[in-house]
Batch of 3 targets.
Target 1
Amino acid sequence: MTRNENQSLPDSRRIFLRQAGVLSAAAVALLAGYPTLGLADSSGDAAILNVALGLEYEAIATYQIGAESNLLPGNLLKVAVLFQSQHKAHRDALIATINKLGGSPVADKSKAEYMASSKLAIAQLKSAADILQLARRLELGATNAYLGVIPSFQSKDLAKVAGRIAADETMHYTALTQALGDALPVNALSFGA
């Protein structure tokens, strides 16, 4: 991620990216479907996962608003709905994991709150390109967040799961970049920095 892209991320996304590196292997184990691994010191993990949950809600709402805008042509609308369904699966996994950790999942905001959010600038979405650029920015943040947790794993299986999720998020970013007609990153090691 370039310095300018990092600066354009919403504050909550930047906070999550900084905190992602301290997410414990136990919390990610639960998220990845390995509930038998240890649950030591879960209160901090639940708090970090709640930040991630808030970001998933934000992505789901953004795709929903984009879908309802009538600005996305057929194929782009199908892709937006697909990506939204994957974020809903992430949301559901996060809620289940936070509950297993003994935490309380944060509540979603109302559509009106997302529409009024200065971070998302929904009122400024006037074209399909505007919607795709916002979604791409959110997907890039998710890619970097998942890559940020991989070094914290003791288990190769958990690192593999996080890598697969990061690959999915990178695919979202790449598809959106191509749909916008923008150039893909030319440098090696462009993600996770």
Target 2
Amino acid sequence: MKRQGIDLSFTVTDFKQQVQVQYQGIAPDLFREGQGVVAEGYVVGPGLFKAMTLLAKHDENYMPPELSKIQVPEK
């Protein structure tokens, strides 16, 4: 993963093939190396994808920090 200002480039792989992704903008807070990602955009050439939107994937147990501080009453 390389960042230069708001330019971000990284590689997505399924461990059989790789695609280089280029994105311009602020990446989601949960975006990091080794984390799943959903990238929306278009193919610009062999093995190169231009992402217009990035979404960081997380597991079903994730809770945003601001919600984790709220206590839910027991039933």
Target 3
Amino acid sequence: MRKRSITSVWNDTGGSVLIEATLVTPFLFTLMFGLFEFSWYFHKQQLVESGIRDAARYLARVNAGNEDGNPCSDATSVAQAQNIAVTGVTSGGTPRVPGWSVGNVTISCPSFDNTGLSYAGATTIYRVTATTSFTDPALGFFTLLGLSTPNLSASHSERSIGPG
């Protein structure tokens, strides 16, 4: 058996592919799962934004049933709007995003003075604002990457126009 010199061992490339794969594979898996996790985050963020927009639009079209026209004065309509945000229906349903509940949805109806009739409508106009913010427990790969789990949050405002 012939002895190999150090230079011949150094120039041997027979196992270089295995060593390169061993070094690169963890980075590729981290990149792949990171992209997968971020795509899930953006998908869930879109679902939350759609739900909040739907809730604000729903409540902006509700007949408040009182003289002042404030849509937030009707607790039933507000509860239905909160449920629309989370589930897409006025009652029951499953959440669009796991971990999102009706308790995470806040709806307010601030008013602004329109006595100068700068805008078409009554002298008092209400703006329906729906907001939410919560941590999605299903986004767990962020912690493996050394990142904190992000909050899913959204806000949307609509002018209350009453029933059409």
